[in-house]
Specification:
Layout (H helix, E strand, L loop, with lengths): L6 E6 L8 H11 L6 E5 L1 H10 L4 H12 L2 H4 L2 H10 L5 H20 L6 H11 L12 E7 L5 E4 L4 H8 L9 E3 L2 E5 L8 H6 L2 E7 L14 H21 L4 E3 L14 H14 L1 H25 L1
Parallel strand pairs: 1-2, 1-7, 2-3, 7-8
Antiparallel strand pairs: 3-4, 3-6, 5-6
Helix pairs in contact: 1-3, 1-11, 2-8, 5-6
């Protein structure tokens, strides 16, 4: 009788720019020498998890973020326009007028296209952070979670181009158009699973460390339009779905990301710091879980030797 060796899995959740908090979590895990046997990511969790699994250190990722945010590509991008609208950066009257028409243009695009951001623009960002390798060649096993809009089922990438898998997993509905793959129409993994704990479990993990970067449920925003009410209803549904899935995790890390909009990339530094702080607060729970796993492995190994 042979026992299948179990592993420690890291499940990184989605949340747009709030995903930068994952970098801080990884910094803490690396510093404390916490072993990771597999990383499963949804949306921005797939972006950060895929970069790390592909051999890019958290420190290098932090450096790359600074370079990207200061690049001409980002400063002139639609994402930057959306961020300005949500952070009130349109200071002067002229900029407010420009911002108004830019946002109206983006909304008009949404009526005739599958996404308000061009695939080329978003792919440029993915390529900036993700190495051009296959998933099966990552230094740490990696899985990217996506959703098939046709069947409504979860699709997990375990092989193929890493950049393509991350691109599809990060395709926020309405912002990025879905990708056709055979009979499937693939989109953001967060539609079904904002924090992919169950996907990590299916990979045979004994311990799942989950990182939840979803926004808090409470909101005092005025709900005056059909769009606002629809978005609020979606947030409530996602919150309860995520809460149910997180119940299957062994340790849940919750960086204090507040209600930050998915497009607010300029808060990267603060988000990284919050991720590192939150992981530090959970380090005792993580370390408590590891000896239990080691004893389980040793016991299984002894049974395997005796059986053979």
């Amino acid at each position: 009788m042979r026992w299948r060796q179990k592993r420690i899995g890291l499940a990184l959740g989605g949340g747009g720019a709030r995903g930068f908090a994952h970098i801080g979590v990884l910094k803490a895990l690396v510093r404390e020498k916490i072993p990771l046997d597999i990383i499963v990511g949804t949306s921005s969790g797939a972006l950060i998890g895929g970069a790390y699994a592909g051999g890019i250190t958290p420190e290098k990722m932090e450096q790359k973020i600074g370079e990207y945010l200061n690049s001409k590509e980002y400063q002139s991008s639609a994402v930057r326009t959306i961020e300005k609208a949500h952070t009130g950066e349109q200071a002067s009257l002229t900029r407010k007028v420009q911002g108004f028409f830019q946002n109206k243009f983006l909304l008009l695009q949404a009526m005739f296209k599958p996404g308000i951001l061009s695939a080329e623009e978003f792919q440029t960002m993915i390529d900036f952070f993700i190495p051009n390798i296959l998933i099966q060649d990552t230094t740490i096993p990696f899985r990217a979670v996506t959703t098939d809009l046709i069947s409504g089922e979860q699709i997990v990438f375990s092989e193929g181009p890493l950049r393509e898998a991350v691109m599809i997993s990060s395709a926020v509905p309405g912002a990025i158009g879905p990708r056709q793959s055979g009979k499937m129409l693939l989109s953001d993994g967060g539609i079904i699973s904002l924090v992919p704990v169950n996907a990590a479990r299916r990979e045979g993990t004994d311990i799942v460390i989950a990182v939840d970067i979803t926004r808090g449920l409470f909101s005092d925003e005025k709900l005056e339009t059909a769009q606002e009410i629809r978005d609020r209803a979606a947030d409530i549904a996602a919150h309860h779905l995520t809460k149910h899935e997180l119940a299957a995790a062994d340790v849940v890390i919750r960086p204090r990301v507040g209600n930050l909009h998915w497009s607010v990339f300029s808060h990267a530094g603060n988000l990284i710091a919050e991720g590192e702080k939150a992981a530090g607060e959970k380090m005792r729970d993580i370390r408590r879980s590891i000896p239990l796993l080691r004893r389980l492995r040793a016991k299984r190994g002894a049974v395997s030797v005796a059986a053979s």
